[in-house]
Design goal:
This protein is of the alpha+beta class. The chain has four helices and seven strands, in the order E-E-E-E-H-E-H-H-E-E-H.
Length: 181
């Protein structure tokens, strides 16, 4: 008897397909690897690999806040579903992402400096530092929203995550790569 009873059964198709496109949605199963195309523009040259962890929680779970914010936090950590996704960006899109990430971080640091100035300096300058802190917080939030990886979970049906559609050029590139695979 050379058969190993503890080994997981092998499917006839080998490894299950981890990526598929169903209509406008991208279907992923862990471990998730998107095809070699930029997730924003669909470019297939000069790509930089990145990874992220996407989180899904059924929107109905947010009703727990009616009982208590603490219960909501506990239930969030109990019921969330996560998936690690490897994806690609072209050099131009990666540079734009880095620029906006640095802008958001710089705005946050400048906000902290403005708040420190508000606390440390005289009352005569307080309105100016308060205004600067408010403007810088808004700037940081806008810069953070300009960052794009576009990967957002729409729904989860065990064991498959359904991602929201990406920009049209990326979806078209993914469809072509799916057909050629």
């Amino acid at each position: 008897m050379s058969e190993n009873f503890y080994q997981a059964p092998q499917s006839e198709e080998g490894i299950a397909q981890q990526f598929a496109i169903a209509g406008d949605f991208i279907q992923l199963q862990p471990p998730a690897h998107l095809p070699s195309a930029c997730v924003k523009c669909g470019n297939q040259e000069a790509l930089e690999g990145e990874n992220t962890t996407l989180v899904y929680i059924n929107p109905w779970h947010f009703l727990w806040i009616l009982i208590s914010p603490l219960i909501l936090i506990i239930m969030y950590f109990i019921f969330r579903k996560t998936i690690k996704v490897d994806f690609y960006r072209c050099g131009e899109c990666a540079d734009k992402n880095r620029f906006w990430r640095n802008m958001a971080l710089g705005g946050l640091l400048a906000t902290i400096a403005a708040i420190a100035g508000l606390v440390a300096l005289e009352d005569a300058f307080a309105p100016y530092f308060a205004l600067a802190a408010g403007v810088l917080v808004i700037f940081s939030l806008v810069a953070q929203t300009r960052r794009f990886h576009g990967l957002k979970v729409k729904t989860y049906q065990k064991p498959t995550f359904y991602l929201r559609p990406l920009p049209a050029p990326a979806m078209e590139a993914f469809r072509q790569l799916e057909k050629s695979a």
